[in-house]
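Structure Section — protein described below
Tokens — whole-number codes for backbone shape
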Amino acid sequence: MAETEPSPPPSATTVDATKHLKASFSIWPPSDRTRDAVRNRLIETLSSPSIISKRYGIVSPEEAVEAANLIEEEAFDAAGKAASTEDDGLEILQVYSKEISKRMLDTVKSRSGDSTATAPPVNETAVKATEEEEDAGSSAPPQSEKTESVADDE
């Protein structure tokens, strides 16, 4: 039988590599720098032209700062409360992100609700006539025919 040689003692680089493998990486809670970046992005989104501002209007920079601070703080608290000890940092970060999005939309919707309260009511007859005019130039069958043909195929 062949004798087995004892394994050499681990070198310093092997020990360092093992320590690095055991190091953990935590993404929750986010650093103050990350939270500041989130607030700055919210301020930019709320106070500059974007898809959201086209629909709900632009928020003044002063209001945007106030809203961004409140949105981020509330989202951070909500995500922290939703976290449990066995939750992965990624799952908590997803909650944080969703809370920010939800609260930002709620903020702009409620703000635009104030400004649209004084807007004149939409004339439904005029809207329907416009839709019919747009459909008149189309070669596609009306929606009702599309639905019927799908039902006939089944």
About this structure: The longest helix spans residues 89-116. The mean pLDDT is 75. The chain has seven helices and no strands.
